[in-house]
């Protein structure tokens, strides 16, 4: 849970200047000053603080929260400082730093699992936040020492304050720093890695750390993607620190079960970290109070190498009482699979005569323009236009068949070799491209990787178009109008010729048989179908489709 700036930099949603923005920022600073003052009032020793923590202490006297009430709540197992922090920084402000606080029932379940596996000599909490994990673990294991790591100095102060109140500070080392740079010495006895690594998407991760991820994974004989979020970095750092006999339990978002960047997580769990169980929360359950993210708990025992990994799906947090439960799945099967969420669901028997869609058709995502504001235009904008489905709602609204391109926008389709244009077209295209360059269309990631930056290559019209991301099953639409599509839809292309009646029959079957359960579900019920996932949908084979169309042929 806790990955924040190393110095006091308060993000704010107020973008307007003037008195209102100043008042709002002042209130947030005062609230954080009050938290810091409360930590000191609870007994945190200034002389033990890091330079980063000293920097955020109030410059002048600040009235703390009621010290006695705060102390009593901490002794009762509550987290008043963490709650005050969440009030001072909104969820939106904490999100870029991955600061998501774990509900107490989840902490208890993970700690109870660990207690059944080891008596650790040391507990390590990467991204400690207000110390929910490490303080509970040190209270459970009275002979263990603890290491709590967080970049946010307020997190360090809150963890120190909780440790002081609970009488744990002599056994706890609080580090203000990056977990990936932590110097964790080898010890006699087991280390328990426990916590909620910060969820920060790859866009916010500095390039040097992406390089670190790739090089470090390579040294371990593994492959890493630059698209991996910060929680993946922390899991790799844990594998570096861990030794045989160590155990751990982390809760993260569950996207790594299926995504390409999640391959490193899957390889770590079937390899160096040696997962013993994985528990996937229903994406609709939203395990965190203030974040719309999925949840999966991984439990691992380094060096155990059990032949099976127990996998469990849970409808809600209350169903996570026993993290040793689950369906045993051969580790070898997991190691050979690129999509683990499918393993958590029963596989229905394929009826006779039915096949996977990929056997009779290819599924292709539409082209990425790289700059829709430039390449997607009203129909009367310029010539060299291709009517194109550019919004998913156009398919949802059209029903079973897209019979006309009326109402669709167009994509400007220019040849890679502009010399094939006649003189008048070339003059107009040159004027358009000068304006496109002024708007930055030539400088984007996608444009720079095209042979000719101006040539948006659209696939041929797909006989069937399908949406692929929504909180409902995909729309499967017959495309008799011959519209093109960009990357808001998939195109379904038969591998061998199919007539219109057969295509109608295939689209109709897909509309009535496909549910969200076949896709990849994210937090809040948002379901996504990647092309390969759509190709795994079970449909009637060509002989059955032809039988179904016989009455219509008369």
Description:
By secondary structure, the protein is α/β, with parallel strands linked by helices. Helix content is 34%, strand content 17%. The strands form 5 sheets. It has a 9-stranded mixed beta sheet with strand order 3-2-1-4-5-7-6-8-9, with helices on both faces. A 4-stranded antiparallel beta sheet has the order 11-19-15-17, sandwiched between helices. Strands 12-14-13-18 form a 4-stranded mixed beta sheet. The longest helix is centred in the N-terminal third of the chain and has 23 residues. The N terminus is likely disordered.
Low-confidence stretches: 1-23
Proportion in β-strands: 15-25%
Q: How large, in whole angstroms, is the Cα Rg?
A: 28 Å
Main sheet characteristics: 9 strands, mixed
Intertermini distance: 65 Å
In quaternary terms, these chains amount to single chain
Helix content: 25-40%
Please give the structural blueprint.
Blueprint lengths: L18 H23 L9 H5 L11 H9 L4 H9 L2 H4 L9 H12 L6 E5 L5 H9 L4 E6 L2 H13 L6 E5 L14 E5 L11 H13 L10 H12 L5 E6 L10 H8 L4 E7 L14 E6 L6 E7 L12 E4 H5 L18 E3 H4 E5 L6 H4 E2 L7 E5 L2 H7 L10 E4 L10 H16 L6 H4 L15 E3 L2 E2 L5 E3 L5 E2 L4 E5 L5 H14 L6 E2 L5 E2 L2 H5 L2 E3 L1 H12 L1
Parallel strand pairs: 1-2, 1-4, 2-3, 4-5, 6-8, 13-18
Antiparallel strand pairs: 5-7, 6-7, 8-9, 10-22, 11-19, 12-14, 13-14, 15-17, 15-19, 16-21, 20-21
């Amino acid at each position: 849970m806790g990955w924040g700036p190393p110095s006091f930099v308060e993000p704010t949603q107020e973008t307007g200047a003037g008195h209102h923005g100043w008042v709002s920022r002042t209130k947030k600073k005062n609230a954080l000053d009050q938290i810091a003052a409360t930590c000191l009032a609870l007994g945190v020793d200034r002389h033990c603080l890091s330079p980063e923590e000293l920097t955020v202490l109030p410059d002048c006297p600040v009235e703390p929260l009621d010290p006695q009430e705060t102390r009593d709540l901490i002794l009762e197992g509550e987290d008043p400082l963490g709650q005050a922090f969440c009030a001072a920084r909104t969820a939106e402000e904490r999100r870029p730093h991955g600061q998501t606080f774990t509900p107490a029932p989840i902490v208890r379940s993970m700690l109870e699992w660990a207690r059944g596996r080891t008596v650790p000599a040391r507990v390590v909490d990467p991204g400690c936040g207000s110390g929910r994990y490490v303080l509970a673990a040190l209270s459970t294991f009275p002979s263990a020492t603890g290491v709590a790591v967080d970049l946010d100095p307020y997190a360090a102060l809150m963890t120190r304050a909780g440790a002081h109140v609970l009488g744990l500070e002599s056994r706890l080392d609080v580090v203000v720093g990056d977990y990936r740079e932590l110097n964790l010495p080898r010890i006699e006895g087991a280390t328990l890695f426990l916590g909620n690594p910060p969820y920060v998407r790859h866009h916010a991760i500095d390039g040097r750390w992406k390089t670190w991820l790739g090089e470090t994974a390579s040294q371990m004989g593994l492959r890493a993607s630059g698209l991996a979020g910060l929680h993946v970095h922390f899991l790799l750092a844990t594998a570096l620190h861990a030794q045989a006999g160590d155990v751990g339990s982390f809760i993260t978002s569950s996207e790594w079960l299926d995504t390409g960047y999640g391959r490193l997580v899957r390889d770590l769990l079937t390899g160096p970290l040696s997962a013993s169980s994985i528990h996937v929360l229903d994406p609709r359950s939203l395990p965190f109070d203030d974040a719309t993210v999925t949840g999966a708990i991984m439990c691992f025992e380094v060096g155990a190498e059990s032949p099976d990994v127990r996998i469990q799906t849970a409808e809600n947090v209350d169903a996570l009482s026993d993290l040793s439960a689950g369906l045993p799945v051969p580790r070898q099967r997991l190691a050979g699979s690129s999509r683990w969420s499918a393993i958590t669901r029963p596989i229905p028997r394929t009826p006779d005569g039915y096949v996977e869609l990929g056997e009779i058709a290819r599924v292709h995502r539409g082209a990425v323009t790289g700059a829709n504001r430039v390449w997607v235009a009203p129909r009367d904008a310029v010539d060299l236009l291709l009517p194109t489905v550019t919004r998913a709602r156009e398919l949802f609204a059209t029903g079973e068949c897209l019979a006309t391109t009326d109402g669709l926008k167009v994509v400007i389709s220019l040849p890679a070799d502009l010399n094939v244009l006649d003189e008048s077209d070339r003059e107009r295209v040159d004027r358009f491209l000068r304006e496109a360059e002024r708007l930055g269309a030539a400088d984007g990631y996608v444009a720079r990787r095209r042979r000719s930056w101006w040539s948006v290559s659209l696939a041929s019209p797909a006989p069937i178009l399908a949406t692929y991301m929504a909180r409902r099953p995909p729309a499967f639409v017959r495309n008799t109008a011959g519209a093109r599509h960009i990357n808001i839809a998939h195109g379904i292309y038969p591998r061998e010729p199919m007539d219109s009646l057969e295509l109608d029959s295939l689209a109709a079957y897909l509309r009535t048989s496909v549910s969200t359960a076949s896709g990849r579900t994210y937090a809040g019920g948002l379901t996504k179908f990647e092309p390969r996932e759509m190709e795994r949908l079970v449909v009637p084979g060509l002989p059955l489709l032809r039988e179904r169309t016989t009455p219509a042929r008369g």
